[in-house]
Amino acid sequence: MTGKALPTGPAALYRFPAGLPLTDYLKLADGAEVEFDGAMEIADAPAHVLAGMRIVDEAKWARHPRRVTGLELALSAMTPFTVVLTQIDENWVMAACWGASARHLLDDVLLDEGFGLRFGIRRLDPAKLRTLNSNSLDTSSRSKQTSFPQGHSLSGFGLEPAGEVVTRLTGPANLEGLTYHAATDGRALQIRCGNSLHIQVGRSPEEFVADLRVISRIVDSSDEDSPLRFLNEVRPVGSNHPLKAELEARFAVALGGDERFGSIGICWPAAVHGVVEGADSFITTSVGGLGPLLLNADFGVEEITARFAHITEGARLAELEAARLVPCEDDQGQEELCRPISMFKWIAFETSIGDKTFCLQQGRWYELSKDSIDRVNEQLAELIANKSSLLFPVWERQKGKDDEHRYCEDELAKQPGFLCLDQDFAKTPMHPKLELADGIGPDDELIHIKWPSRAAELGHLFNQAQASAWSQRLEPEALQQLREKVKALDSTRTLTDRPRTVVLALGGRPWEVKKIFPLTRVSLLRLNQELTYLGIKLEFADIPSVAKPKSTTVAGPSNGQAA
Predict the structure, then answer these.
(1) CA–CA distance from 4 to each of 8, 180, 184, 211 (Å)?
(2) How many CB atoms lie within 10 A of CB 266?
(3) At what angle do helices 244-255 and 313-322 cross, to 10 degrees?
(4) Spatial distance between the Cα atoms of 236 and 359, rounded to a whole number of angstroms
(5) Model confidence over 113-130: pLDDT tens digits?
(6) Ramachandran region, residue 354 (left: φ > 0; alpha: ψ -120 to 50; beta: rest)
């Protein structure tokens, strides 16, 4: 085909559920000068075309370089755009976009999210993927992009089972059935896939519409034979998801303390990770018109649900989003450690509908397939069967955030061979405040202890173990300070090498797969992978324990924050 113009050209494609007038899928951007805005027919399909120019008289940043350089720079811009909306069948409307501004003329709320990704799963060459973007579903909210310029199989991208949501793929694809495939004798095409699909489509009206229909059929076809099919097993739940209303109704029930549809828990927002450990209390704005809640440092979700039980189900979600929660340095909710954050981001919830599991985390819903959950559960059940032989004293839970330290110092460290390192921080170039462990066992086991009253606390436990293990491997200062701390606590004891066993010990409840939120299960599997790489064995212990008496949540004074 060298030297001969192709009968196709590149376009960015989006898809919408049909059922609305075509103009309802559009939103006109500021500064747009429209050249054509009207209905027409392309081939045999109803269509609507919006074309024109977006004009920016001056870039928002223009004044800065003018002042820096002293030059009178003309920094206006004009960007052309065209959007062609086509109803390809009774179920779907497709949008073809040209120009950088065109994408912003579509209504995001109505998009068929992940449409392009689903095409890629069915047609990308699984051995030659070039770029993969993903977001971690744990509390870190980590995003990453991994690229292989020459292409690589999926194994090279380091994805975790049910632990990451893939948002974008690029690579060569088989376009059999499309105009491009016929015109190039089956040559593969580099495509970009996400919510949109960047691909070549026919230039003639008939070939254009035919290509859109083939693409849509491919997206709706089975992916059971695709090696990439599991990439779509974890997906964000869009605002137009058919089960969104049911999910919110179930969540509203759980907010009142009724967990018949699934479990609910506290999950720290990513924005408070650096300060929440220093909190002696938490304070909310007024909730349900009943005033603020003053919460202890170790509050549980039942203290939140007790208040929401007094609010009608239909109003609970709106109240949760409007209310704010903030950690405080004092025990009276007066000295705020950071800005107040919507309570919606403090709650984790999971529920199952059919063979799908849905999780709410960091204020966002995710859908996890049964296959992905089953794989994680099987791996985790096998992992937590690695029980430690260490014997722990009974933990009688007391009030206050120092309860863990009291247990480590007053109970654990009095057992033969055990030492307390809790709150005895190390300092390294990478970690100004590093907690190497809560305790040391008789055979130099590093013991990390937690009484988890909220979902995020297990994530904190895993992060502590991970940071400690990596610092001992990569930072000589960490291992040296660990040796010095052990020697200071027991002059007869010398730590000669990096500890090779890490024990995660829980008080208050045993290690059970079903009692761990699905996304937290993935974090634990990730931790085990990293420790295995470092030559460390991970073991688990159930601390015999006695729960503290139920605390009573009290209303506190308003802290001046608007709900």
Answers:
(1) 12, 13, 10, 21
(2) 22
(3) 90
(4) 10
(5) 889 999 999 999 999 999
(6) left
Q: Is 51 helix (H, G, I), strand (E, B) or coil?
A: strand
Q: What is the dihedral of CA 193, 197, 203, 204, to 10 degrees?
A: 130
> Is there a contact between 450 and 397 (Cβ–Cβ < 8 Å)?
no
**What six digits make up the tokens of 409?**
């110092």
Span of 20-29, 91-100, 125-134, 160-169 with lowest mean pLDDT:
160-169
pTM, entire model? 0.71
Q: Give 502-541 pLDDT, tens digit per residue.
A: 999 999 889 999 888 777 888 898 899 899 999 999 999 9
- Check: CB of residue 266 under 8 Å from CB of residue 320: no
* Cα–Cα distance for residue pair 196/182, rounded to 1 Å: 23
Is 459 in contact with 526 (CB distance < 8 Å)? no
pLDDT confidence tier of residue 470, bands split at 50, 70 and 90: very high
The share of the chain scoring above pLDDT 90, in percent, equals 55
Q: Each residue of 422-457: b (16+ CB within 10 Å) or e? A: bebebebeebeebbbbbbbbeebbbbbbbbbbbbbb
Residues whose CB falls within 8 Å of the CB of residue 23, separated by 6 or more in sequence, listed in order: 48
| Whole-number average pLDDT of the chain | 88
Q: What span, in angstroms and rounded, lies between the C-alpha atoms of 32 and 52? A: 7
Q: Which two tokens stand for residue 429?
A: 């170039």
Q: How far is CA 499 from CA 58, 61, 390, 472, 534, in A?
A: 61, 54, 15, 9, 11
Beta bridge partners of 8: 202
